[in-house]
Amino acid sequence: MLRMGLPRGAVEQKMRMAGLDPAELNGPRQAATPAQEPKKTLKRKDSIRKKLHWEGKRHRTRRDSLWGGDAVEEAKEAVQISEESRAMLEKLFVKDLTESKKRNASVKSDGAAAAKKKKAMVQLIDMKKSQNIAITLARVKLTFPELKREILAMNPSVLSPSQVRSLMDMWPDRKEMEAINAFTGDMATIGTAEQFLMEVRSVPRFHEKLGCLVFKQEFPSRVHELRESLGLVTRGVYQVCSSAELRQLFIYILQIGNLLNFGGDDEQQGVDAFSLGSLVKFSQTKAFVGGITFLQYVVQSIERDVPHLAHFYNDIDLISKCSKVAYASLASEKNGLEAGLQNLLREAEASIPPPTASDADKEAMMAYNNTLMQFCKEVKTELYALQELLDKLNAAKAHFLEYFEEEDTEEELDVLLTHIANFTTEYQREHDKYQAKMKKEMIGLYSKFSPAKNPVKAVEPKQEPKAPHGKMHHGAKLPQSQHGHHSHGKAAHPHRTSMPPQIDHPQPIRQIHHARVLHLEIPQDDDMDEVSSTASMSPKTSAALSGGTP
Question: What is the rounded CA–CA span in Å between residue 163 and residue 158?
Fold first, then answer.
C-alpha cells in the first residue's frame, strides 16, 4: 500500500483497525521464542463499530495537493490522536455485544417475572373480547349492578347504540359463558369484562335483552326516516304524473323524434310513445354538423317553438330528491321493523325469572316485561301508520307505470324516476348554457350597433315663419311628393294628402329606434353559428335582422 503512494499514517491506522501490528511495516521480525509471549493484537471480539461512510480517494499523491507534498509527514506527527480521544471514540462508536447480551438476559428475566405475575390473573373469555368489553364499559360512570338495573329498565340513555352493539358483538360464546357460570374464585383475579359478565349471568337471555334495548333506541329515528321517505316519493310521483308541462314536452320531443327517424309527419310510420330509458339517448345522439347533440337541438327548438315549456323543471322540483330513494329499501326497512317487533314479543314471553333468582332480580325482570309490552304497543301503532303510507306509495307507483306505459318494464320505480331526474338535470344545464350564449350574442349586437360606435346625427326640421291668415311665406319651400314633384294643394291633386308635420325627437335619438330600421347583416363564422344564431331567435328578431318587416 505504501508503494501505491498511500501515506504511512493512514496505512498504520488501517492495520490497527484490522488487528495487525504497524511495526511490521519496518520489515520482518524474528520468530518469538517460547520464553517470549506474543504481543496481543488489537482485534476486538464480540463488538461492532459504527462506520463512517465517506468517499475515499485512491490515486497518486501530488506534491502540490493537500494530501501530498514533503510536509505531509510533519503534519501527521503534529496532529496525533491522544489516548483520551481514542478511548472516547471506542466508548461512543464501538458497541460491546457481550454487554448487550447480558442486558437482554436481564430484560428477559424481568419479563418472565412479569409474565408469572400476569399468569396469576384468570382468563375466562377471549383476550380480544375482554379488552373491547372493558374499553366500552370504561366510558360508563355506573357500577355494574346499577348498569344491569338500567338495562333491564330499558333506559335508552344509559348506553349509546354503538356501545350496546359493541357489547353484543363481543359477547361470550356458549363455552365462555359456561366458564363464567362455573367460576367461583376471587373476583380480584379476573378482568373488568369478566366482572361485568359475572354480574349479569343471573339474568337469562341478557344478550337478547341488549338487542331489544338497541331496537328501542333506534326505533324513533328509523320510523321518522321511513315516514319521510315514503311521503317524499309519493308526492314526487304524483307531481310528475300531474305536470302538464312535462306531458307537453314529451309529446313535442316525440314529434321531433318521429320527424328525425322517418323524415315526415306521417303518424302511421312514427311511434306512439317512447320509454323513459330512452331519455339518456338524447345527449348521446350527435349531429353531423357542429357536434351538437339531439338534446341541445331540443333545447333550442323548445325555446323557439314552445318557450312556455322551457322551464318545465320548475314544475317537478321533487324529482331529484325522490329519485335518490331506493324503492326496495323502503319495503326492506318496513320488514325490518316488523321483525324487531316479533323479537320483542318473543323476548317478553321468554323473560320469566328463574326460581333461583333473587327478589331484586325478580322485581327487575317483572318491571322489564311491563316496559317491554308497553313498548310493543307503541311499535304496533307506528307500524300500522307506516303500512298506510306504504299502500299509498304502491298506488302511486301503479298510477305512474300506467301513466308512462311502463307496466312491462323490469326496472324499479326509483330507476324510472332517475331517468327523468337525469334528463331534467341535463336539460337544465344545456338550457342555462344556451341562455348565456344568447345573452352574450345580444350584448355583442347591442354594442356593435350602438350610437357610441355608429353615431347618427338627428336633423331637426327648420321652422318656417308662418304667414298671416294662413298664407305661405314667400321664402318657404313646398313639400315634395314621393316622385319629387312640388305639391300644388288639394285642389290640384285631390287624391293626395299633405305630409304630416314632423315630430321633434328628444336628443339624442334613442338607440332602440335605430335598431328597428337598420337592415343588419350578421357575419357568420360557419354553418353551425348560422343555425344557432338565426334559428334560435324569435320570429320578430329574425325578421328584423333579415331586413323584413316585423
Answer: 10
Please give the single-letter amino acid code of residue 360: A
Q: Where are the alpha helices (DSSP H) in 141-205?
A: 144-152, 161-169, 174-182, 192-200
Task: Tell me the average confidence (pLDDT) per consecutive run of 10 residues in the chain, 550 residues long.
Answer: 68 74 67 50 60 56 55 60 68 68 60 56 88 92 92 92 94 92 89 92 90 95 97 97 94 91 75 91 88 91 92 95 95 95 90 74 84 94 96 96 93 96 96 92 81 54 52 45 43 44 44 34 42 45 43
d(CA 347, CA 458): 97
Residue written as cell 337478547?
208
pTM tops 0.70, yes or no: no
Kindly list the structural domains of the chain, giving each domain's residue range(s) and its CATH number in brackets, ordered by start.
1-25+57-102 (no CATH), 127-201 (1.20.58.630), 229-420 (1.20.58.2220)
Q: Report CA Rg, the chain.
A: 50
Q: Cα-flanking dihedrals φ and ψ of residue 494, to 5°? A: -70, -25
- What gap in Å lies between CA 17 and CA 86, rounded to an integer? 12
Give CA 343 to chain center in angstroms: 37
The residues, ordered by sequence, that sit 6+ positions from 192 with a Cβ below 8 Å of its Cβ are 130, 133, 134, 137, 138
CA dist 317 and 274 (Å) reads 23
Give 443's contacts (C-beta < 8 A, 6+ positions apart).
none
**DSSP character at residue 325:** S
List, in order, residues 6 or more apart from 383 with CB less than 8 Å away. 334, 337, 338, 341
- Helix then strand count (H, E) for the chain reads 19, 2
Contact 22, 16 (CB under 8 A): yes
47-49 and 94-96: which strand pairing?
A: antiparallel
Scan for cell 399468569, then name that residue. Answer: 119
488: three-class secondary structure by DSSP: coil
Spatial separation of the C-alpha atoms in residues 142 and 150, rounded to whole Å: 10
Coil, strand or helix: which one is 48?
A: strand
